[in-house]
Specification:
238 residues; alpha/beta; Beta-carbonic Anhydrase, Chain A; five-stranded mixed sheet; 9 helices; 12% strand; binds zinc ion; lyase; Carbonic_anhydrase_sf; Carbonic anhydrase 2
Length: 238
C-alpha cells in the first residue's frame, strides 16, 4: 500500500532536479505522482476510501479564476465539497449546467450548504463594467452588467475604479445568492422542510481570507410575491 510511485524515467519525482526545465504539462503528471505518494504516506487508506463514493455537505459555486480553488481556500479534502465554477460565479436561471449541478447537489447528495464564492479583483466583473467588446464572453458578461444596472445608483457614486469593481463583486454575489433562492430546486427543498442554507462569500486574494457577506438564507419569505413559488400541487387521478 505504502509504495512510492515512480515517474516514467524511473526516478522518484522528489529526486528530480530538472523540474524547472519541464514544461507545465509534464509538471502536472509529475505533480500528480507526488501528490499520490504524499497522500498515501499520510493516510494509506485515503484512496480506498475516496473510491467508495462521496457525501459532501457543501456545494460551492465559485469563479473559474485559477486563484480560488474551493478545497484549498477552505482547508478541506477531496470528497468534502461539490464544486461548480464559471466566470464570475454566476447563477443564471437558464444555465442548464448550473441547474443540473444544483439539482444533483440538493436532491441526490442532499448538501446542507450552498456557497456562492466571489473574489475581489474578479476579471469577469471588471470586464463587465467596461463597454469593451471581448467576443463570445460578452453574452455571459451581460448577466453581470444587469446586476450593475440594478445597483447603478450606488456604484456610480464610487470614483475609485478598483473599489467600484470590488463593490460590484459583493453585490453580484448577493444577487447570485438570491438567484439560487429563486429556483424551484432550492424552494422545494425548503418546502419539504429540508435543512438547506445558501450563503454569499468573498475571497480576499491579498490575504486569502474569506468574508461572509451575511446574506445567508434558509427560507423564501424575503423573495417577494412572484419569486416565492407555492408548493407544487400533485393532482391525483383515479
Ligand atoms: Zn473571477
Amino acid at each position: 500500500m505504502n509504495q512510492i510511485i515512480k515517474s516514467q524515467d524511473n526516478t522518484t519525482v522528489e529526486n528530480q532536479h530538472h523540474q524547472y526545465e519541464q514544461d507545465s504539462y509534464q509538471s502536472l503528471i509529475d505533480g500528480n505522482i507526488n501528490w499520490v505518494n504524499n497522500r498515501v504516506k499520510e493516510d494509506p487508506e485515503f484512496f480506498t476510501r475516496l473510491a467508495k463514493g462521496q457525501s459532501p455537505e457543501v456545494l460551492w459555486i465559485g469563479c473559474s479564476d485559477s486563484r480560488v480553488p474551493a478545497n484549498e481556500v477552505t482547508g478541506t479534502q477531496p470528497g468534502e465539497i461539490f464544486v461548480h465554477r464559471n466566470i464570475a460565479n454566476m447563477c443564471v436561471h437558464t444555465d442548464m449546467n448550473m441547474l443540473s449541478v444544483l439539482d444533483y447537489a440538493v436532491n441526490v447528495l442532499k448538501v446542507k450548504h450552498v456557497i456562492v464564492a466571489g473574489h475581489y479583483g474578479c476579471g469577469g466583473v471588471a470586464a463587465a463594467l467596461t463597454n469593451k467588446q471581448f467576443g463570445l464572453i460578452d453574452n455571459w458578461l451581460r448577466n453581470i452588467k444587469d446586476v450593475y444596472r440594478l445597483h447603478s445608483h450606488e456604484l456610480d457614486r464610487i470614483t475609485d475604479e478598483k473599489a467600484k469593481v470590488n463593490r460590484l463583486v459583493e453585490l453580484n454575489v448577493t444577487e447570485q445568492v438570491y438567484n439560487l433562492c429563486k429556483t424551484t430546486i432550492v424552494q422545494n427543498a425548503w418546502n419539504d422542510g429540508r435543512e438547506l442554507s445558501v450563503h454569499g462569500w468573498i475571497i480576499d486574494l491579498s490575504s486569502g481570507l474569506v468574508k461572509d457577506l451575511k446574506v445567508s438564507s434558509n427560507a423564501a419569505h424575503h423573495l417577494g410575491y412572484v419569486y416565492q413559488v407555492e408548493e407544487l400541487q400533485v393532482v391525483e387521478t383515479h
